[in-house]
Amino acid sequence: MSELSILQYGLIALIFVWSGFVRSGLGFGGAVLALPFLLLIVNDPLVFLPLIAMHLIFFSTLIMVQSQRKQGLETAPSICWPYLKRAMRIMLIPKIAGVIGLLTLPPVIMSSLIFIIVLAYAIGYIANRPIAITKPWQEYGFLGLGAYVSGTSLTGAPLIVPVVAAKVAKHELRNTLFVLWWILTLIKLVSFIIAGVDLQLIHHLWLLPCAFVGHLLGERMHSYLIEQETPTFFRVLGIALVVVSLTGLMKSAGIL
User: Fold this and answer.
1) Does 99 fall in a domain?
2) What would the pLDDT profile of 55-78 be if each residue is shown by its tens digit?
3) What is the separation of C-alpha 165 from the centre of its chain, rounded to a whole number of angstroms?
4) Which class for 82: exposed (0-12), middle (13-18), buried (19 or more C-beta within 10 A)?
5) Structural domains counted in the chain
6) Whole-prediction pTM
7) What is the three-class DSSP state of 44?
8) Inter-residue contact 63 to 78 (CB < 8 Å)
9) What is the DSSP secondary structure assignment for residue 33, as one 8-state letter?
């Protein structure tokens, strides 16, 4: 990114503020809602994925520390550890498969199918008629495919979120997702290091503060959403999933 103009650097900074806001406010979407716009500036995912990955790990750690401190003052935990352990048992092997590229389904076709499926779930949230995930094959299928996509990129959230949202209490959802992202992203980041990918460490000096500003704004939004009635919370969740899915479909079609 050494040959960019001041305007391009400014746009990247704003996009990382947006990424931090979405990630902190909803607990997901920081990568998939930022990466398409970043690629319009520098069309190379490997420039930005290490930055997004390290930011996700940093802010996930921050959220977990805050949750542990808060848990000492409250009886109800803010992270659903039992379901987190169950989800990781389902997702670990597909995640590793995605990292090493064992499956051969073209990424564009896979991504399009994922976003179309998630659109159906998101519309259900918006209409206050969420599709119930009651069958084991639904849980295993969504989590497994989401883990594989997370292994090939960092955009598996649209598949994973509906399952976790159906299994975890509203007040535990965001923090549980953050712990899950921390684990999945750490695996991905280790793969970057093994492959010798440039982690863009110098750019963290100015992009991490940008993401932190978005994080603080997102914290306020999350507090507001938690105080709302459950249908309102899931309606906002559904709208976010629609935006994520449409952004992904436009990216797959070459519009973004």
Assistant:
1) yes
2) 989 988 887 777 667 655 554 557
3) 13
4) exposed
5) 1
6) 0.76
7) coil
8) no
9) T
